[in-house]
Specification:
The complex is a heterodimer of chains A (215) and B (489). With 215 residues, chain A is mostly helical. In chain A, helix 2 packs across helix 3 and helix 4 packs across helix 5. By secondary structure, chain B is mainly α. Classes of the chains: A mainly alpha (215), B mainly alpha (489). At the A-B interface, helix 1, helix 2, helix 3, helix 4 and helix 7 of A face helix 1, helix 3, helix 4, helix 8 and helix 9 of B.
C-alpha cells in the first residue's frame, strides 16, 4: 500500500512512526518492537498516575492493544509517543474516574499508591528530620501527588518523568499550551504546599524571602 | 510592613512565568524578564528555590519496571484480535500474512509477499498470482521483503521504505545534492528519493549489486555509505587521495570526517554567496579582507571594540574563524562572523553603558531601585549579557516597574563619545541637513529616549553608507550588509 508524502515525511523524523507503519501492514515483529521500546516508559507513567503496579501493567497492555486494533486507521500526524500517551491519558483518566465512582479499599497496602489515612498521619507526625527514610519520603511524595486532581497529576507526570514540553503535553491532553502552563503552575504550587515541611531538611538554611520560616 | 500585611509572595502570574522559566519554556525576552525579577526580588528567588526543590522531591517516587513477561503476555493477547478479524473476513480469499513462510509461490520459485490484502480487491488476487507465476515480475519486484510504501520509479524496493529514507536522511550522504531543501520541508522525502534514484541509475551493475546485497536496511545504507565515500574521495585533489591511501586504517575514518567537515563549512559560506549572487557579482568580494591595511583595521576594531563584549562561545567562534583566515587565507568565514557580531553588538560601549550585573550599576540608579523596594537584591547576582542587562532594566522602567532617575545611555549629542560627535558634525550632519533624514534625527533628539537616540544615529549612518569610527566596522556599511541577512532600516 502506498502512503502519502506526509506520512513519509513524518517517518523521516520519527523512527517509531516507521515501526507503526509496519504494524499497520500487519508486521507483528514491528509491533513487538514497539512494545519493547515503550513498555518501560508507559508503565512508569501509568504507575505514577495510578499508583498500583498491576493496574498500571493492565492499562499499559490495553494501550498497546488499542494501538494494534486501530492500526489500519493509523495516519501519522504527530510523534508516535505523543499518540501513545494520548491513548494512555484517556485510559488512565477513565480508570481513575471509575475508581472514584467505585472506591476500593485495598486489603494490602498499595505499593506506592494513596495510603490509608492513619498510616499517612503517622508518617506526617514524624518530624521531617535528618534521618527520614527514603521509603517514607516516597510515601509522602506519593500522597502529595495523589492530592492533585487527575489532570494536574497527568501534566506533572508527563512533564517530570517523560520530559515532555508544554506543546506535547497539550497535544496529549487536548489542551492549549497556555492551559498546560497554568495547570502545571497550579500543580507545582500545590505540591510545594503539600511538601513544604520536607523541602528544607537536615538543617538546610531557608533562603531569604521564603515564607517557610515565618510564624 | 505592618503585621496585617500580606506575605511577600509573588503574584500568581509571576509564578506561572517562573514555573515556565524553570521548565525552559519561556522565549528569550520573557526569560530575561524573569531573570531580572529573580535578581531583584528575594521573594521570587525563594519561590523559585522552593519550586525547584519540590520538583526534585518527585525523584523519590519509585520507578516501576514492567514484569519480565509483559511483552509475551501482550503479544499473546493479539491472537483473539486476529481471530476476530479472520472471522470477519469470512470466505473472502486472502493472502497469507507477511510473516508466514507458506506464502511463497512454488510456480515462480520466489516467495510472494505482501500486497495488503484488505486494500486490494480480492478479485485481483488470482490475477496477481498468475502474473507472478508466468513472468516472475512480482517476485522480482517485491522479493521477500515488506511492501513498498511509495511506488518507486525504479531501483530497489527499499528506496520507497520510509525507514530506509529516514536512515539515509540522517546519514547526510546526499545532503550535498539537496541544497536549499530544509530538513522539515514537506517534499523532502520525495526529493531525497528522486536524488537516490538518479544516483542509482548511474551505478555500474557491480555497484548496484553491492547496494542490494545486504539483508537489512542498515546493510543497504552502509553499502551506500561506502560507495558515496569512494565517490567523494575520487573527487578530491591528488595529494589528498595520496594521503588517504597512505594513512593507517584507524586514521582513514578520521581524515574523511575532517575533510567532510571542512567541506560542509565551505558549503555554508557558499550558500550565502549563492543566495545573494547578484550582489556578489557587483562586489566580487564584499569587503576587501585580502587588502592587508583594511584587514588590519578590521582586526583592530574587532579586538578593541567587539571582542570585550562577546560571550565565551562567541569568542571561540571568532578565534576559530580567524585561524581559518590566517592558516588557509580564507577570510570569508571571519568576515561573515564579524558582520553578524557587529550587528548583534551595534550598541557598542559609549552608546550603551557596560553594566552587566547589578553591582555594575552606578549609585544613583541603585538608589532609585532601592527606593522601589528592590534594594535587598543589590548583591553579587550576575545576570544577562551586554547590552541585554541594561536593555532589560530599561524595559522594566518603560513598563513602570522601576523608576529610573535618568536615561541609561546617551540621549544628547554631548553625551556621545567625542569621536561620534566629530563624525556627526563633520560627516553625517552636512549630508542630511535639509533632507527628511535631518527631521528623523531631530525627532529622536527631541524625544530624548535611550536606546532610540543612538540607534537612530546608527541607522542614519548605515543608510548613508558611512562608518562611524570606533563604533562601526571599517569600510562601507553596505558591503558588510552583504554578509548578513537584510535588515530593515
Amino acid at each position: 500500500m502506498a502512503i502519502g508524502r506526509t506520512s513519509t515525511q513524518m517517518a523521516l523524523r520519527d523512527p517509531d512512526i516507521v515501526l507503526m507503519l509496519r504494524v499497520r501492514e500487519d508486521d507483528d515483529t514491528a509491533f513487538a518492537e514497539l512494545v519493547e521500546r515503550f513498555q518501560h516508559r508507559l508503565i512508569a507513567v501509568l504507575h505514577h498516575l495510578i499508583g498500583n503496579t498491576e493496574e498500571a501493567e493492565d492499562l499499559a497492555q490495553e494501550v498497546f492493544l488499542r494501538i494494534y486494533r486501530t492500526r489500519k486507521k493509523y495516519r501519522p500526524k504527530a510523534k508516535f509517543s505523543t499518540w501513545l500517551f494520548t491513548i494512555a491519558n484517556n485510559l488512565a483518566l477513565n480508570a481513575l474516574r471509575d475508581r472514584n465512582r467505585r472506591p476500593v479499599i485495598p486489603l494490602d497496602v498499595r505499593d506506592s499508591g494513596p495510603q490509608p489515612v492513619n498510616q499517612l498521619a503517622a508518617v506526617q507526625q514524624e518530624a521531617p528530620g535528618k534521618h527520614l527514610q527514603q521509603a517514607e519520603l516516597a510515601t509522602v511524595v506519593r500522597q502529595a501527588l495523589d492530592e492533585l486532581n487527575e489532570r494536574q497529576r497527568m501534566a506533572v507526570v508527563l512533564n517530570k518523568f517523560e520530559d515532555m514540553n508544554y506543546a506535547d503535553i497539550a497535544e496529549v491532553m487536548g489542551l492549549t499550551s497556555k492551559a498546560v502552563k497554568s495547570l502545571l503552575s497550579r500543580a507545582r504550587c500545590r505540591l510545594r504546599d503539600a511538601l513544604k515541611d520536607y523541602i528544607y531538611m537536615d538543617g538546610e538554611a531557608v533562603p531569604e524571602g521564603a515564607d517557610a520560616e515565618e510564624p | 510592613m505592618s503585621a496585617e500585611a500580606p506575605k511577600n509572595e509573588p503574584l500568581p502570574e509571576i509564578v506561572e512565568d517562573l514555573v515556565a522559566y524553570l521548565d525552559q519554556e519561556l522565549d528569550g525576552a520573557k526569560a530575561r524578564a524573569v531573570e531580572v525579577k529573580l535578581s531583584l526580588d528575594p521573594s521570587v528567588r525563594a519561590e523559585a528555590d522552593s519550586l525547584k526543590r519540590t520538583w526534585a522531591l518527585l525523584d523519590y517516587l519509585p520507578k516501576k519496571e514492567p514484569s519480565a513477561t509483559f511483552t509475551t503476555r501482550t503479544l499473546q493477547r493479539l491472537e483473539p484480535i486476529k481471530a476476530v478479524k479472520a472471522d470477519r473476513s469470512g470466505s473472502r480469499p486472502s493472502i497469507a500474512p507477511v510473516s508466514e513462510p507458506s506464502r511463497s509461490s512454488s510456480q515462480a520459485g520466489v516467495p510472494i509477499a505482501v500486497v495488503p490484502p484488505r486494500r486490494l480487491s480480492w478479485i485481483l488476487v488470482p490475477v496477481l498470482f498468475c502474473f507472478a507465476g508466468t513472468a516472475g515480475f512480482v517476485g522480482r519486484l517485491l522479493w521477500t521483503q515488506p511492501p513498498p510504501t511509495i511506488a518507486p520509479r525504479s531501483g530497489p524496493y527499499f528506496f520507497a521504505d520510509p525507514g530506509f529514507l529516514a536512515l539515509i536522511d540522517q546519514s547526510d550522504l546526499f545532503e550535498d545534492e539537496m541544497p536549499g531543501i530544509a530538513p522539515k520541508a514537506p517534499d523532502r522525502a520525495v526529493k531525497l528519493q528522486a536524488v537516490l534514484l538518479r544516483w542509482y541509475d548511474k551505478l555500474s551493475d557491480a555497484e548496484r549489486a553491492q547496494v542490494t546485497a545486504g539483508q537489512s536496511l542498515v546493510d543497504h545504507v552502509e553499502a551506500i555509505r561506502r560507495l558515496r565515500q569512494a565517490e567523494w574521495l575520487a573527487g578530491q585533489p591528488a595529494p589528498r587521495r595520496q594521503e588517504y591511501a597512505e594513512a593507517a586504517p584507524e586514521r582513514k575514518a578520521r581524515l574523511l570526517e575532517e575533510w567532510r567537515e571542512e567541506e560542509r563549512n565551505r558549503n555554508e559560506v557558499w550558500q550565502v554567496v549563492e543566495s545573494r549572487w547578484e550582489e556578489f557579482k557587483k562586489y566580487p568580494l564584499p569587503v576587501p579582507m585580502y587588502d592587508e591595511a583594511f584587514r588590519k583595521a578590521v582586526l583592530v576594531h574587532v579586538d578593541t571594540v567587539i571582542r570585550p563584549l562577546l560571550t565565551p562561545t562567541e569568542t571561540m567562534r571568532l578565534d576559530y574563524s580567524a585561524r581559518q583566515g590566517v592558516e588557509q587565507m580564507n577570510w570569508l568565514p571571519y568576515a561573515r562572523l564579524v558582520a553578524e557580531l557587529a550587528e548583534r553588538y551595534r550598541l557598542v560601549r559609549g552608546l550603551a553603558p557596560d553594566w552587566r550585573t547589578i553591582n555594575h550599576l552606578p549609585d544613583d540608579i541603585r538608589k532609585a531601585i532601592r527606593q522601589d523596594k528592590f534594594g535587598d537584591t543589590l548583591k553579587n547576582k550576575e545576570i544577562g549579557r551586554y547590552p541585554d542587562f541594561v536593555l532589560n532594566l530599561n524595559k522594566l522602567a518603560r513598563e513602570g516597574k522601576i523608576k529610573l532617575p535618568r536615561p541609561l545611555g546617551p540621549t544628547r549629542l554631548e553625551e556621545l563619545p567625542i569621536s561620534v560627535q566629530d563624525f556627526l558634525k563633520r560627516e553625517l550632519f552636512p549630508r542630511i541637513r535639509g533632507t527628511p533624514d535631518w527631521h528623523v534625527y531631530q525627532t529622536a533628539l527631541e524625544k530624548g529616549l535611550w536606546p532610540e537616540y543612538p540607534e537612530t544615529i546608527l541607522d542614519l549612518a548605515t543608510k548613508h553608507n558611512l562608518s562611524i569610527p570606533g563604533v562601526m566596522l571599517p569600510g562601507e556599511p553596505e558591503r558588510w550588509e552583504l554578509l548578513r541577512p537584510k535588515r530593515k532600516l
